[in-house]
Automatic annotation (TrEMBL):
GO molecular function, one term: monoatomic cation transmembrane transporter activity
SUPFAM superfamilies according to UniProt: NAD(P)-binding Rossmann-fold domains (SSF51735), TrkA C-terminal domain-like (SSF116726)
Span of domain RCK N-terminal: 4-120
Protein name as catalogued: TrkA family potassium uptake protein
InterPro entries in the record: NAD(P)-bd_dom_sf (IPR036291), RCK_C (IPR006037), RCK_C_sf (IPR036721), RCK_N (IPR003148), Trk_Ktr_HKT_K-transport (IPR050721)
Length: 219
């Protein structure tokens, strides 16, 4: 495993617990904090340590010494006031690497104004993901690089099986670049132009979102 990191997750609702659980399963240290005892108890088996505390209360927050953690995730959602107060206190304590969940646009705008490094909009992003999946079933996964550019994992269109990248002329025809190929359990990094593509290959591509959209809709 990579270097063991320390994460604090404030708010052990569905989102917070899910973040904590994954990090803990990957072998990292996870401190879980929630104002409700019940939530801490429910999450106990997925975290290293649990604390019942009101993170919006300075006196409760300071003793947790969150400045020693690599990342602090603020996963309080519905109680926007508590989320904002918590983030403000963390900022005042000089804590960097804050990741905060926003339930909506306005909540996100406030978090941005306070200077949160990374804001997550779980509902909006998940909705977008589902829609993208419906629009292009061949697109298995994607990562936004900028406003216009993505890296995407796209299932090889059936009609391209047995052809090489050179023959298909993907870069010129579709204006996208294939940076690697996922084949069974293997990964072919920077594939040669003569690499023959096989059924079930997944192409890891980079390009403009509109061009990737077109490519991922081919059959
Ligand atoms: P989700 O949609 O992820 O379930 P919720 O907003 O329902 O999100 O859950 C957020 C969690 O944050 C809840 O478990 C709640 O008890 C906790 N929480 C709310 N306010 C505070 C606070 N001031 N300090 C610590 N935990 C809090």
């Amino acid at each position: 495993m990579a270097v063991k990191k320390q994460y604090a997750v404030i708010g052990l609702g569905r989102f917070g617990t899910s973040v904590a659980r994954r990090l803990h399963a990957a072998g990292h240290e996870v401190l879980g904090i929630d104002i409700h005892e019940e939530q801490v108890e429910d999450a106990e088996m997925y975290i290293t340590q649990g604390v019942i505390a009101d993170s919006a209360d300075k006196k409760a927050l300071i003793p947790l010494e969150l400045e020693h953690f690599d990342y602090v995730v603020v996963a309080i959602g519905d109680d926007i006031q508590a989320s904002i107060l918590t983030v403000m206190l963390l900022k005042n304590l000089g804590i960097k690497n804050i990741i905060a969940k926003a339930v909506g646009k306005r909540h996100g705008q406030v978090l941005e104004a306070i200077g949160v490094e990374w804001i997550i909009y779980p509902e909006r992003d998940m909705g977008e993901r589902v829609a993208n999946q419906l629009l292009a079933p061949n697109r298995l996964d994607y990562m936004k690089l900028s406003k216009d550019y993505n890296i995407e994992e796209i299932m090889l269109p059936a009609k391209m099986t047995g052809k090489s990248l050179r023959e298909l002329d993907i870069r010129a025809k579709y204006k996208i670049n294939v940076i690697s190929i996922l084949r069974n359990e293997e990964i072919i990094v920077a594939p040669a132009p003569d690499e023959q593509l096989q059924n079930h290959d997944v192409l890891v591509t980079i390009g403009k979102r509109s061009d990737l959209d077109k490519f991922s809709q081919l059959n």
